[in-house]
Amino acid sequence: MDSNGDGPVFVAELAGKIIGEVSKVIIGKKKELQLILASMLAQGHVILVGVPGVSKTSMAKALARAIGLSFKRIQFTPDLLPADVLGTMVYDPRSGEFRFRKGPIFANIVLADEINRASPRTQSAFIEAMQERQVTIEGITYELPKPFIVIATMNPVEFEGVYPLPEAQIDRFMVKVDVGYPSRDEEKDILKKYNIIEEFNVAKVAEAQEIMKASRVIRNIHVSDPVIDYILDIARATRDHSMIRLGASPRASIFLMRMSQAWAAINGRAYVLPDDVKSVAVPVLAHRIILKPGVTPEPGLTEKIIEQIINTIPTPSPPARKQ
User: Fold this and answer.
1) What is the pLDDT of residue 323?
2) Can you give the pLDDT at residue 3?
3) Cα Rg of the chain (Å, integer)
4) pLDDT at 65
5) Average confidence (pLDDT) over 219-233
6) Confidence of residue 143 (pLDDT cuts 50, 70, 90)
7) 45, 155, 244, 309: which could join 150 in a potential S-S bond, CB 3.0 to 4.6 Å?
């Protein structure tokens, strides 16, 4: 599979180049960058959650620059309208006709900054784009660029003037990545390299065509029946948990499998291991479950529940390997 450079070795080398370049300006966030890139390669969307100043925006911008993708940032505010995101019809006096002026959503990577600050009406404008990779204006459908990835950010400590994302939309995000504070040594490194980081000198080390090629490779990463059963056991356990009112949907099961395939590929393997599933289960599932009334939603509780579920489900061994 790898003899012609089209297999998981290609994906692993591509991921290594991109993360290596981005790490010049993003210090100490390798696991977070791997999760974001794996989701991108699996053609999924990402939520980044963290307090201001922990490089959420810089991560998205650096990844776009390293891959040579078009990048647009949309600052979400309560007065933002769907037309401000999707575009609108404008009158052309020369032709006497209305023509479509594309909005910022027409980019490869769209950063929806503080997405929960916009009204539900504006939030819902993203649903068709995220699911179908297209937008419909005045009955006409416009295709979005390929690849198309939405990276949304949310501040976990502000609750005034925000609108929680509806379940139908949050379920369309493949992963939620928590971006925490750096360690002391990492923060010291940031201070010492501040001038370099501020210059944001990220070189283009990949092409959009390579991302699409990697996505095709990932779809063919082998998932054995025992591993599929393992994925199903985890997803279905969220539906029967005593503290969960709404568990993972079938879409979540699909996303968990696709992220596991991407995780295997960026590690150079043509098959998925149970450890791949474990590595991505919390980012894929934690943001989808809804707790029962009366359960205090303390920070990190849903993540702890997913980890608890993983620890109680037998791990298939040995995993079937495609020869």
Assistant:
1) 46
2) 41
3) 20
4) 93
5) 96
6) very high
7) 45
Q: How confident is the model at residue 159 (pLDDT cuts 50, 70, 90)?
A: low
- Nearest-angstrom CA–CA distance, 26 and 276: 24
> Would you place residue 213 in the very low, low, confident or very high pLDDT band (cuts 50, 70, 90)?
very high
Question: Tokens 């990545």 sit at which residue?
Answer: 177
DSSP string, 35-97: HHHHHHHTT-EEEEE--TTSSHHHHHHHHHHHHT--EEEEE--TT--HHHHHEEEEEETTTTE
CA 212 – CA 146 distance, rounded (Å): 8
Higher-confidence residue: 289 or 318?
Answer: 289
Beta-ladder partners of 137: 140
**Site of tokens 């996505």:** 215
List alpha helices for 193-273, DSSP H: 194-199, 208-219, 225-240, 250-266
What is the reported pTM? 0.89
Q: How far apart are CA 151 and CA 148, in angstroms?
A: 10
Among 289, 168, 178, 279, CA closest to 237: 289
Structure tokens at 102: 């594309």
**Token output for 299:** 């920070």
Distance CA 115, CA 127 (A): 13
The pair of structure tokens assigned to 316 is 């298939």
On whether the CB atoms of residues 264 and 289 are closer than 8 A, the answer is no
